[in-house]
């Protein structure tokens, strides 16, 4: 048996023996926090009780009516007893806190030891991997196949993540495009008295709508290429270029052409909404593929570790 493999198996045994430490340190930290809170609360109660005792002592000394003096003396005695009980509770909590700190110190030393062992195991695993890659053995061939599949999964995951991020950007652009189209629609007016102001408003709205129209179309084309590479099926993601000019290349600027413009804008908004819904399905599909690929990668890592340790 390879000496590296023997060392790996020894380290795995040691790490397994210390595996409970991580859970224990979480438990101990929570316990320490709870004890510390109780200590602070008990100390606050002691201070409050001490103030009450001081007030009663001062009043008892100045008391002139015997019945009131007797009542205060009785209450004072009760307060002192309560203070005594709280003091005992405080001392007990302080002892418990010291024990908790000591336990954490021991656990932290062990967790450091566990960290060293895990690092040493990682180095040994890398050495074992290099060793197997030079061997003409079944394990070496199996490891080679696992490495190849892992690299393919990594490449696929990067592409999926890029396509997912691109779909998010497209969602934002489509939202802006739809809003710009509605701005164009709202800027259209048949009131000739406000024609100059309406014209300026419409020109700006048209400019923004054209920009978002082209930008979203280009990004959707890029997304389509990515989806085809990933072999992900999808419905129509084509954002139609809205024709904001007439057949002579001039912007619409009269009552009839405004009616045509409104019709085209309505069609454009409907097209954006249709693509938006299709894109939601595509994004959900990409998300599922990402999860599947991440599960595959984890399975391949498990297989790889098994090859290296057995």
Description:
This protein has 310 residues and is an all-alpha fold. It has 6 helices and no strands. Helix 4 (138-187) packs antiparallel against helix 5 (195-229). The longest helix has 68 residues, at 66-133. The chain is flat, with a radius of gyration of 38 Å.
In short:
The chain is mainly α.
Which secondary structure elements does this structure contain, and how are they paired or packed?
Blueprint: H1 3-17, H2 20-62, H3 66-133, H4 138-187, H5 195-229, H6 255-309
How many extended strands? 0
> Gap between N and C termini, in Å?
10 Å
Instruction: Average the pLDDT over all residues and give the rounded result.
Output: 81
Task: Please state the overall shape, judged from the principal axes of the Cα atoms.
Answer: flat
The residue ranges in which pLDDT falls below 50 over 5 or more consecutive positions are 61-69, 190-197, 247-251
If helices are DSSP runs of H or I spanning 4 or more residues, what is the number of helices? 6
Structural class: mainly alpha
């Amino acid at each position: 048996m390879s000496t590296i493999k023997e060392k790996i198996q020894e380290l795995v045994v040691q790490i397994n023996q210390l595996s409970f430490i991580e859970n224990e340190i979480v438990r101990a930290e929570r316990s320490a926090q709870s004890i510390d809170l109780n200590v602070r609360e008990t100390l606050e109660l002691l201070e409050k009780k001490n103030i009450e005792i001081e007030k009663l002592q001062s009043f008892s000394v100045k008391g002139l009516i015997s019945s009131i003096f007797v009542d205060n003396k009785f209450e004072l005695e009760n307060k002192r007893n309560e203070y005594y009980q709280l003091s005992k509770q405080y001392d007990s909590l302080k002892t418990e806190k010291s024990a908790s700190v000591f336990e954490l110190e021991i656990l932290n030393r062990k967790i450091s030891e566990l960290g060293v062992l895990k690092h040493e195991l990682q180095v040994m695993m890398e050495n074992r991997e290099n060793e197997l890659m030079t061997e003409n053995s079944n394990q070496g061939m199996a490891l080679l196949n696992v490495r190849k599949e892992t690299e393919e999964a990594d490449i696929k995951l990067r592409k999926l993540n890029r396509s997912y991020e691109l779909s998010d950007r497209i969602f934002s652009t489509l939202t802006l495009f739809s809003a710009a189209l509605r701005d164009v629609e709202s800027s259209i007016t048949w009131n000739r008295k406000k024609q100059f102001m309406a014209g300026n408003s419409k020109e700006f709205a048209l400019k923004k709508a054209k920009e978002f129209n082209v930008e979203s179309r280009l990004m959707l084309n890029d997304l389509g290429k990515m989806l085809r590479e990933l072999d992900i099926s999808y419905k129509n993601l084509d954002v139609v270029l809205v024709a904001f000019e007439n057949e002579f290349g001039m912007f619409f600027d009269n009552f009839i052409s405004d009616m045509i413009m409104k019709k085209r804008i309505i069609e454009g908004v409907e097209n954006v909404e249709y693509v938006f819904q299709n894109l939601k399905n595509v994004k959900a599909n990409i998300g599922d593929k990402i999860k599947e690929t991440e599960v595959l990668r984890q399975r391949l890592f498990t297989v790889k570790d098994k090859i290296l340790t057995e």
